[in-house]
Amino acid sequence: MSLTFDRERLLDETGCALLAALQENARMPFSELGRRVNLSAPAVAERLRRMEDAGIVRGYRVLLSPAALGLRLQAYIRITVRYGLYDAFATQLHDMPEVLNADRVTGEDCYVLKVAVRDVEHLERVINAINRYGEPVTSIILSSKIEDRPLLPS
């Protein structure tokens, strides 16, 4: 059986309902998931194992509030990395706990980073740390209208 066929089969109506419920609450017991999608708890466990094996479900995590952890300021930083510094920049990003996301992008910029910091002074230190790799452009996030939107197969 091909991996593509298995993915399509796993993403039927029941599979999509299971994914929606899990994204609502990843700690939901298999028995409750089963009630929601009309499967037994063992069938839910088996379906989830197959979704994990197929790479559909990559993991389960806790979503934390940066503000509750003292990181009251978030920002996007766009940067065009200077030629020859790509590997060093990627290494630098991995060593910076403030970096929540680092997306390699097309267009004028090379990367778009999302960072969480305590305050403006902390943000300045983050910018200074990456400044040697290129010219960063920073936008402070005032509010988020959509966060952690659940994904569903199209």
Automatic annotation (TrEMBL):
Pfam families: AsnC_trans_reg, HTH_AsnC-type. SUPFAM superfamilies: Dimeric alpha+beta barrel (SSF54909), Winged helix' DNA-binding domain (SSF46785). One of its GO terms (molecular function) is sequence-specific DNA binding. InterPro entries: ArsR-like_HTH, AsnC-type_HTH_dom, Dimeric_a/b-barrel, Tscrpt_reg_AsnC-like, Tscrpt_reg_AsnC/Lrp_C, Tscrpt_reg_HTH_AsnC-type_CS, WH-like_DNA-bd_sf, WH_DNA-bd_sf. The keyword RNA-binding does not apply. Gene3D superfamilies: 3.30.70.920, Winged helix-like DNA-binding domain superfamily/Winged helix DNA-binding domain. GO terms for biological process: response to amino acid. Keywords: DNA-binding, Transcription, Transcription regulation. Residues 11-72 form the HTH asnC-type domain. This is AsnC family transcriptional regulator. It comes from the Bacteria. GO terms for cellular component: cytosol. CDD domains: HTH_ARSR.
